[in-house]
Amino acid sequence: MSHAVTAAPDKPLVVLNQRTIWLIFGALMASMFLSSLDQTIVGTAMPTIVGELNGVEHQGWVITAYILAIAIAMPLYGKFGDLYGRRWPFLVAVGLFVVASVGGGMAQTFESLVAWRAVQGLGGGGLMILSQAIIADIIPASDRGKYMGPMGALFGISAVAGPLLGGWLTEGPGWRWTFWINVPIGIAAWFIAYFALKLPSHRTTRPTDWGGILTMALGTTGIVLLTSWESLGNDGYDWSDPMLLGLLVGTAVMVGLFVFIENRVSEPLIPLRLFKNPTFTITTLIGLVLGMGMFSAMAMLPTFLQMSAGTGVTESGLLMLPMMAGVMLTSIASGFAISKTGRYKMYPVVGLVITIAGMIWLTRLEGGMSLWLFGAMIFVLGAGMGLIMQTIVLAVQNSVDPHELGTATSSNNFFREIGAAVGTAAFTTVFTSRLSDNLEGVFGGLPEGAAPAGGGSGLTPAIVDQLPEPLRSGVIDAFAESLAPAFWYLVPLVAVGLVLALFLKEIKLSGEAGMVARGEAVMEGKETDILDR
C-alpha cells in the first residue's frame, strides 16, 4: 500500500554515492551508540545509585522506565519518519536525549531519576529506530547485511562498554557522570547528524492517528505496571485490591481500543494488516521473546558480579567483555555471510539454540565462582544474540513496501522493547522478591544496630564488603541464590522463539535501496559498497 506523501518540490534527488553513504552511516553509528550505551551504562552503577537514593527494592525501574519510554516512542518516530521524512525527527531525538541526560545527572531522588530516564528513553527510541530505517533507505537489502553486522556489533560493544564505563565513572568522579558523559557526546552527535543527514522531507494530507498514539501509550504503560506490581511496593497480587483491578481493566480497555482504532483509521500508527505478512509476524514474535530474555539477563549480571562474586565496580564491567566478543564475532560474520549468499534463515535458528544453551548455563551461577567460567557463560549468550538481532530486522525490512520501512521497522522493534520492558520488570520482580526473603533470613533475629541501616534496602557493594562474617557470606549467597534460578523462567520464552524461527520463510533480498524504490534518490554505480573497500 503506497502513501500520499511526496518529496518537497524544491528538494533535488539525493545522489547515493560512496561519500554520502559514508557520512550518513557514520552519523547513524555515533547516534546509535549513544542510545544503546545508555541501556547498559547504569547497570554497574545501579547498586551504588539505588543504595544512595534508597531504592533497592525498586531498582528495576531505572532500566524499565528507559525501555518503556523507548517502546512508546518507537512507533511515533517510525510513522512520522515515513510521513514527513527522518531528518528532523532524528535531530529532535538527539536533543531530547541530551536534555534528559542533564536532568538525570542532577537528580536528587530516586523518583526524579526514574522520570529523567523515561525522558531519555523518548529520545533513545528515535535514535535506534530511525537509524535502522535510514540504513534501509540508503542500502539495498542484498548489501545491507554488511552494514547491519557492524550495527549489531555496536550493540554488543555498548552492552559491555556501558557497564565498563559505568563502573569506572562510579568509582572515579561518581555515578552522576554516567549521565553527564552523554552531554558532550550528544551535542557532537547532533551537529554531525545536522550536517550529514541530508535526507528528503515529505508533505502529507494524511491525518495523525492521535487515538492510536494515546491508547498505545496507556496500554503499554499498563502492561508494564502490571508486570511490575510487586516491585512497586505492593504486597503481591491481591485481586481484591481495587487499584490492581482497575489497572488490569484499564489496560485491557486501552489495548482493545487500540486494536479497534487501528482497524478503522486511514493512517494507523501500527497497521495491523502488517501481521498478514508471515515474515513480519514471525520475526516480531521472535523479537518479543528475545527482548524478554536478552535485556533481563544483561540488566542484572553486573549486580551479581559486584554483590555476589565480590568484584569491584569497574572490574564487573571488564568481566562483561566476553559477551561483547560473542556478539561482535557472530554479528559481523553473519552479516557478511548473508550479503554473500543471500540466505538468512539459518542464523536466527542457530542463534536461538545457542542463546537457550547460554541461559541454561547461567542457572549455575554461584557466589565465588571462577570468573573464567562466568566469562565462558556470557560469551555463549552473546554469540547467540549476535546471530539474531540484526538478521530479523533485515528480514522484516526486506518483506514490506518501501513506503512503510519506518513503520514496519518500528513496529517490529516496538514489540521487542515491550518484551524487554515486561521481561525486565518480571525478572527483577522475581529476583527482588527472592532477594528480600533471602536477606530477611540473613538479617532476621540480629540484635538492634547489628544489621545495616535500612536492612537490605540500603546495601551497596562497599557496605557488603565491610560486613563481618558470617553476614558478608550470607549476603553474597543471598544474591547468587536469588539470581541464578530466575534464569529458568527465561528459557521457555526463548524456546518459543526457536520454534517460530523454524517457520520463517526466506525471501530473496532486494537489490534496490528504499529511497531509490520511492523515487527520492538515485544510486551512483556500485560505489556505495564502501565496506568492500
TrEMBL record:
InterPro entries: EmrB-like (IPR004638), MFS (IPR011701), MFS_dom (IPR020846), MFS_trans_sf (IPR036259)
Record's keyword annotation contains ATP-binding: no
The Major facilitator superfamily (MFS) profile domain, residue ranges: 24-509
Gene3D superfamilies membership: MFS general substrate transporter like domains, Multidrug resistance protein D
Any matching Pfam family: MFS_1
Keywords, in A-Z order: Cell membrane, Membrane, Transmembrane, Transmembrane helix, Transport
Location(s), subcellular: Cell membrane
Membrane-related topology note: Multi-pass membrane protein
SUPFAM superfamilies with a match to the protein in the record: MFS general substrate transporter
Top-level division of the source organism's lineage: Bacteria
Annotated TM spans: 21-41, 61-78, 90-108, 114-135, 147-165, 177-197, 209-229, 244-261, 282-305, 317-339, 346-365, 371-396, 486-504
Signal peptide segment: none
NCBIfam families, A to Z: efflux_EmrB
Protein name: MDR family MFS transporter
